[in-house]
Each structure stands twice: as C-alpha cells, then as structure tokens.
Design a protein that fits this description.
- The protein contains no helices and 23 strands.
- The protein is mainly β.
- The strands form 6 sheets. Strands 1, 3, 5, 7, 9, 11, 13, 15, 17, 19, 20, 22 and 23 form a 13-stranded parallel sheet that branches.
Length: 259
C-alpha cells in the first residue's frame, strides 16, 4: 500500500483524489499552482507531513478525516483557500502554517489538542477569529499578524506559549486574553491594532526582549508582570494610555523605552 506521496512541482491540475490511500503518512504536493482541490481519506494513520504550499487550493480544504493528524502541516500561499476543516486529533502538531492564504471567518484549531512549536497564520486579511485549544505543549512562535481579527483574541489556553508572539496590524482587535505561562518571551508584539481598555500582561511571567504595544489609540492601561528578564525595547507610543503607567516591576528593562 502507498504510504508516501511526493509530487512537488508536477503540474497537477484540478482535483487530486487520495481518498483511497488510507495508509498515507507523508504527503507533499507543493508548488502546483493549478491544483484546486484535494479529496483526503478517512484514516487513523499517523500523518507526519502534509505539504500543499504555493498551490491553487480553492474554497475548503477538508482534512477532518485524518484522525491521527500531526507533524508538519503547511499550506501557505494558497490565496483562494478560504476554510480548513481540522480533524479531532491528539497527535503532536509541530508546525501549522497557513499564512498568505485567503482564510476568512473563523479558523477552528480546538480539535488539534496538542499544537506545538510553530503556528503561523499571518496575512489572511479576511480572517476574523481563531479558536485555540487548551494545550500545554511548547509553542515557540505564534504569528497572527495582518489579519482582520475582531473583538477578543483568546490565547489563554496555550499555557506552553513562549518566545515569539505577534498579532500586529489587526485594527479591529480589541482585547487579548493571555495565558498563564512561565515560558521565556523574547518578542511580544501587538502594535497597530485596536486594543482598548486594559491589556493584562501579568500572566506572562517572563516577559522580555522586544515588547511592542504602540499605536493602539484606545488602549488606556497596561498591567505588567513582575519580571527580571532583560527587556531591550519597550514601545508604547501613540496609544491612549492615561493615569499612571507602572513599569516598576520590569526590573530587567534597559535599552529603548518610548511612551
């Protein structure tokens, strides 16, 4: 039985039907700009790689039947891909990459119970909502820049989040619910958004590196954690901060501070 497919740069067109390949574990058909649809199998095999980046995927990609879906999932740069139906899976997903697509409405990641390491969803200008699972796995890079996130972004269930979080350029994003995490942060950036009221960063106990919160004209208050981690750049300018700005708990602050 077939367990691997590699048809990168093969001029595939139209629909690729792999529904009968229930033992598939590796699937890569990237850089096929005329490939529009994939019919996936219902399979309990462990998926370690699923790559369809730089292709012509259109409408909905349904991977909901891949119940041991994990490893690397990369479908970036499919500008006509609007929706992804994810499977309910306990497998470890180490990369989930959907940037520069045409995702719209809601992307529901809750069925993927063990997301980890890299989650790149940025540059989907019609994507309004992302629903995240409760996962304690280490997530070192979460990018949701330049989408159309609206209302509240709830990442509170990602208790293993650390290192690099970016949600810049979401002008309708009003609130962020941060996770309680001991992970070390080197980059926390939500500039040029529509944050309002209070941003509570206290759950992020090791906030450090570059912290960019500028250009949020309706953001009135920021609550910082007690953190001795080195912060080399803290940028809060062009926001609506009022009253007292208390940064006394950031004992590792140095370098550039602009408010």
């Amino acid at each position: 039985s077939i367990t691997q497919i590699n048809m990168d740069n093969d001029s595939l067109t139209g629909t690729l039907d792999i529904s009968s390949l229930t033992n598939l574990t590796y699937f890569s058909v990237q850089t096929n700009p005329m490939l529009n649809y994939i019919i996936n199998p219902n399979s309990s095999q462990s998926i370690i790689t699923y790559n369809v980046l730089n292709s012509g995927l259109t409408g909905t990609l349904d991977i909901s039947g891949l119940t041991e879906f994990g490893g690397i999932f990369n479908v970036n740069s499919n500008s006509k891909l609007n929706y992804i139906l994810n499977p309910s899976s306990n497998a470890l997903v180490t990369q989930y990459i959907t940037y520069s697509c045409g995702l719209m409405g809601t992307l529901d990641l809750k069925p993927l119970k063990n997301m980890s390491y890299i989650i790149w969803i940025q540059s989907n200008p019609s994507l309004n909502t992302v629903l995240f699972p409760n996962s304690s796995q280490n997530i070192s890079s979460l990018y949701i820049d330049n989408c159309k996130l609206t209302g509240t972004l709830d990442i509170s269930g990602l208790t293993g989040l650390s290192s690099d979080f970016r949600a810049n350029g979401n002008t309708n994003l009003n609130y962020i619910l941060n996770p309680s995490t001991n992970g070390m942060f080197s980059y926390y950036s939500i500039n040029d958004c529509g944050l309002m009221g209070t941003l509570d960063l206290r759950p992020i106990k090791k906030l450090g590196g570059n912290v960019y919160l500028h250009t949020n004209p309706s953001l009135n208050t920021i609550l910082f954690p007690d953190s001795s981690v080195a912060i080399s750049s803290l940028q809060l300018y062009s926001s609506g901060l009022s009253g007292t700005l208390d940064i006394s708990s950031l004992t590792g602050l140095s370098g550039s501070f602009v408010a």
